[in-house]
Amino acid sequence: MDDMEKRLVVCFSSVLPGLSSDQITHASASTVENWDSVTTVTLMAVVEEEFGVTIVEEFPARFDSFQNILSYLQESVT
Amino acid sequence: MKLVEALDVVKRTSQRPSEPFTCFLAAGFNLLHLNTFLTAELSLVFADRNIRLRSGLYGDLLGNLNRLATTGADAGIVLLEWADIDARLGLRSSVTWSPATCADIVDTVRERISQIQCAIERASARIPVVVSFPTLPLPPASFVPGWQASSIETELNTITQAAWSQIMRQPQVRILSPQRLDMASPLRARLNVESELLAGFPYHLSHASVLANLLAQLTRYPMPKKGLITDLDDTLWRGILGEVGVEGLSWDLDHHTQMHAFYQRFLGALSSEGVLLAIASKNEPALVEVALGRKDLALSPEAFFPLEVSWGRKSEAVARILTAWNVGPDSVVFIDDSPLELAEVRAAHPEIECIQFPTKDSSGIYEVVLQLRDLFGKSAILEEDPIRTQSIRRSSAMAKAYKADNSASVGFLEQLEPEISLNFSKSPVDPRGLELVNKTNQFNLNGKRFTEAGWLNYLRQPESFLAMASYKDKFGPLGKIAVIAGREHGNELRVDSWVMSCRAFSRRIEHTCLQKLFHRFDADVIRFDFGETERNGPIREFLTELLGRAPVPGCTISRQLFESRPQFIQEP
C-alpha cells in the first residue's frame, strides 16, 4: 500500500468509521450499507482537503468507490 | 480544524456518558460540513456534555427560526446568509437583476429581517440564542463596478445593522463579531461556488471551520477570568525603575514606548469592568509608590490592589494576592516580561494562566491585549462589577480589624451597620444570579452549574423560588453577593443551589439568609441538596456548625432547631 492509498484509507475511516482497512480498499456505494449521498459529499470534501485537489464537477458520478477515487487521485495528483 | 479532524472529534466524543447539550441550528442552507465542524467545536467547548445538534428544514429559514422557540434545546444558533433572506441574492436563483429588481430586493429584505428579528426575540425569551450576520459577499447585482459601494449594498447593510443593534439588546442574544470573523476568515475565501451548486452548502471548508469555532465559543456562557497580576518594569512601563529612576520610565510616542500606554489603558478598562488588578514586582516599594503617582499614567493607581512590591519570590507575592482576593488560581492571569519569573510562578501555581509580555515588540503587545480581551470578556457589565475592587479592599481591611477584635466578633460586625436584603423576584431574570451560580466555587452547596436554558426552565417551574441577597454596610455596597435557588414542597424548602461570593465571607450573611428564608416561606424545615466538591470547604464548615455534624446530601435543619441557636439569629 503506497502513501497515497494509506492517506485515502485514513480519509475513508473518518467518514465511514467501523470499516477495516481491507474493507475500505474494497468499499463502494453499492457494498457499504450506510454510504449515501452525504457520505459521497463528505468524502469529496475530506479528499480535497487531504490531497489539496479540487474535484471537477463532472467527477462526482464516479466518486462511488475507493478504487475509483484512488485512480482519480493517481491521475490528478502529481 | 480540518474536516477529517472534526470527524474524529465527533467520533470520539459522541458516545461519552454525559448529560446532553442540545443546540438547534436555524439556517436556510444545507448545513452539511458545518454540522460536523460545529458538533466537534461544541464538544471541545462543552467538554463535560454530550453534544446533540439539531436543525430544521433545508430552505426554510423563517420556519426554522419559528421552531427555535419550541425545540426545548439548550441553545439556539441562527445562521443568516443573504440568499436565505432573499433567494435572488444567491447563485441558485434564475431571476435577472435590474435596478427595479434591486429596489424590490431591498424591500423584501427589510420585511424578512423584521420577521427574523421577531422570531429571534421570541426564541430568546426561552433559550439563549447566538446569531451570525450574513458572512458571504453580496452578488454583483448592482450596475456599479465592484470597487464602488452600491446603493443596494449600502441599504442592505443599513437595514441589517439597524436590526442587529436592536436584537443585541435582548439579554439572551449574543451576536458573532463580524470583525473577529473577518480577521480569521478572509471574505474572498468564504464562498464555495461549486459546493453551493452541487450540494447547497455555500462555504469553503476553511470558512466553515472558523465559523464553527467562533459560534461554539459564543454559545458557551462566558466564564471570564477574575483577576490580572502584572509586573511593572518593562511591562506596565518601559524601563527598570531601580536603574533609570522614576523620570526615566516611559510609555509614550516620543520614546517609542507607546504600547505600554496602550497596555495601561487596557488595564484601566478591565478595572472599570470589575476585573481585579494587582502588582507583583521586584522593586523598592517607596520608588514604586512615586512611579505610580506619575500624572501621565493612563490608569489610576487605585485600580491596583494589592501591591506586592518586594525582593522576594514572585510566586510568594502571587500567593499573597490570591489570599487577599480570595479567588482560585484558575481565575487569574499573571503577566511578566521575564520567562524566568513566569516559569517560577507557573511551577508554584500551575492553574494560573501565565503570559509573557513581549517588551519591544509592539505588534506582540497588541496581540497580548487581544488575548486578554478574550480571557476577560463578558457579555454585559453588571452593577456589581465596578465596585468589586473597592469591596475587596474593604474586605481585606475588615478582616484585619476583625482579627484584631476577635474577642467580640458579633459586636464588631454590628458596628459595620450591615444591611442584608433578599429579593425573591424570578422575573425579569437577573443575569447576576446565573453568573454567581456558575462561577462560585467556595461557598457553593454542591458545585452544580446550569446552562442558560436550564436556569430559565428551572425558574419557570411554579414551585421554584429564587432569593438574591444584596449587602451593604457603612463602608459601602457589595452588591448582589448570594443566590439561593430551591423549591417549595409543603412546609419544606428544598434548596438546590446556594452560592455566595467570597467577597461577602465573614459577615454572617449566610445566617441571615436562612433566617429570612424561614420567615418568608413560613417553612418548618429546609433541606439542602449538599454535595461535597474539592473546593466547597467554606459552606461545608458553615453547615457543620449549623447542623452540629458534617453535612450529607439531603441534610435538613428545622426551624425549631435553627431558632434555638441564638448565634444564628440576627436582631432585626
Description:
- Chain A has about 80 residues and is an all-alpha fold.
- Chain A has 4 helices and no strands.
- Chain A is globular and about 30 Å long.
- In chain B, the strands form 3 sheets. In chain B, strands 11, 12, 13, 14, 15, 16 and 17 form a 7-stranded mixed sheet that branches. A 5-stranded parallel sheet of chain B has the order 2-1-3-4-5, with helices on both faces.
- Chain B has 22 helices and 17 strands.
- The model of chain B has no long low-confidence stretch (mean pLDDT about 90).
- In chain B, about 45% of the residues lie in helices and about 15% in strands.
- Chain B is globular, with a radius of gyration of 27 Å.
- The interface between A and B is medium-sized, with 16 and 15 residues.
Task: Write down how many β-strands of chain B occur, each being a DSSP E stretch of 2 or more residues.
Answer: 17
Low-confidence stretches of chain B: none
User: Main sheet of chain B?
Assistant: 7 strands, mixed
CA gyration radius of chain B, whole angstroms: 27 Å
Task: Summarize the amount of helix of chain B as a percent range.
Answer: 40-55%
Gross morphology of chain A: globular
Determine the mean pLDDT of chain B. Answer: 90
Q: What order do the SSEs of chain A take from the amino end to the carboxyl end, as H and E?
A: HHHH
**Whole-Å distance between the termini of chain A?**
18 Å
Short recap of the structure:
By secondary structure, chain A is mainly α. Chain A has helices spanning 3-15, 21-25, 37-51, 66-76.
Describe the protein's topology.
The complex is a heterodimer of chains A (about 80) and B (about 575).
Chain A: H1 3-15, H2 21-25, H3 37-51, H4 66-76
Chain B: H1 3-13, E1 20-26, H2 32-45, E2 50-55, H3 61-68, E3 75-79, H4 82-85, H5 99-124, E4 129-132, H6 151-167, E5 173-175, H7 178-184, H8 193-199, H9 205-219, E6 227-230, H10 241-244, H11 258-272, E7 276-282, H12 285-292, E8 304-310, H13 314-325, E9 332-336, H14 339-348, E10 353-356, H15 362-376, H16 388-404, H17 409-415, E11 419-423, H18 431-439, E12 443-444, H19 452-460, E13 464-473, E14 476-489, E15 492-500, H20 509-521, E16 525-528, H21 537-547, E17 555-558, H22 559-563
Parallel strand pairs in B: 1-2, 1-3, 3-4, 4-5, 6-7, 6-9, 7-8, 9-10, 15-16
Antiparallel strand pairs in B: 11-13, 12-15, 13-14, 14-15, 16-17
Helix pairs in contact in B: 1-2, 2-9, 3-5, 5-6, 11-15, 13-14
